[in-house]
Amino acid sequence: MHKYKTHVTPANDVKVRRAPEQIIAEILQKKFADKNNVVVAIGGPGGTGKSSFAKRLSECLIDSEILHLDDYKTPRNERKNKNLFGAHPDANYMALIDKHLELASKGCDFDKPLYDTICGTTGKTEEFKVKRITLLDGEVSTYRQFRDKVNFSIFIDSAWTTQLQTRINRDIEIRGYTRDKAISTFLQSNLREFAEHGAESKNWADVHLYCEEDYRLVIESVAEELYLSFADILKKDMAQVDLSGLIVPVLTPFNDKNEIDSLAYIEHLKFLGENGIERILINGTTGEFFSLAIDERRMIMSLAKQYFPGIIMFQAGCDSLAQTKIEAKWADQCGADAIVSLPPYYLSTCPEQGIIDYF
């Protein structure tokens, strides 16, 4: 079942923000205070920092143990013969994972497999000592097959470029892959297999995390029911981003010198805030998004962040896709609560190839 999400953003008035693992650890400890044998899944595509996050979360939960699902992969030669990669269910011992999750949910220890990442072979095992909380680390941890065995799920996502860079570095340095093989593995595993078999699990995950380009994790959204139940914890660090309801597009005033009238703009922002307006869209009406210069776009964003107390939506669509991406990233760093991206207008006489090149 799809879970409605509450989008959140770091609160502006928090001087020292806690890391996502600290916030989630507090929620888990409170949510499952009276329950033993809790299973928490940490899933998402390869290269988003799942293992690093699982380690940090485990350090915040002294009664937890990590079960690395990469150890349940089938031998590399078998996968190669079947043209399968790690994110495909058939590339993993799914039945064994299911059996071991059943044991973990009952508090029973078991012998787990050990996968040799250098040789790509299996066969060895080691005892897994079940603690009160079992953290599942792996792409398949949030797959549909295990939903009834998981008490809480965390989905970590990132831009595909971040995933690619991570996989290239890891596969070349640790596994000895060539660059071409690392890229091919990424294309097959992340963009094909995980997209087909694992991406849907984001719909029912309790928490969404996003991995930035610098590998900093931020909480993106939480299940609506979870937010309502643990708002006291989340509101210490996070503010709700409610995009539903009235959104007022803000005009950009100019003076008789064809310059932005910053004083009039500030007064209008204050007027809106004082009269109950909670959400505004800037750089997105009367042609601003393709007529304002870059410095002018950034100026109105900075002023809005300073003088408007509510949710700010920034229209980042520009005259090219490359510039649009730059503006979206900049607006996010400057504190926009949401990014809107509209394609530029084209004259009816614009060559069709020009439109194709843009998109």
Keywords summarizing the entry:
359 residues, eight-stranded mixed beta sheet, four-stranded parallel beta sheet, 14 strands, 21% strand
Overview of this structure, please?
With 359 residues, this protein is α/β, with parallel strands linked by helices. It has helices spanning 20-31, 50-60, 76-82, 94-105, 160-173, 179-197, 224-229, 231-234, 262-274, 288-291, 294-307, 321-333, 352-358; strands spanning 5-10, 38-43, 64-68, 110-116, 121-128, 133-137, 152-158, 207-211, 217-223, 238-241, 248-249, 279-282, 311-315, 338-340. An eight-stranded mixed sheet has the order 3-6-2-7-8-9-1-10. A four-stranded parallel sheet has the order 11-12-13-14, covered by helices on one side. The radius of gyration is 24 Å and the shape is globular. The mean pLDDT is 87.
The radius of gyration is 24 Å
Distance between the termini: 34 Å
**Main sheet: which strands, in order across?**
3-6-2-7-8-9-1-10
**Average pLDDT:** 87
Please report the total strand number as a whole number: 14
Number of helices: 13
Helix-residue proportion: 25-40%
The major sheet is characterized as: 8 strands, mixed
The helix/strand series, from N terminus to C terminus, equals: EHEHEHHEEEEHHEEHHEEHEHHEHEH
Structural class of the helices, strands and pairings? alpha/beta
**What fraction of residues sit in β-strands?**
15-25%
Name the shape in a single word: globular
- Uncertain ranges: none
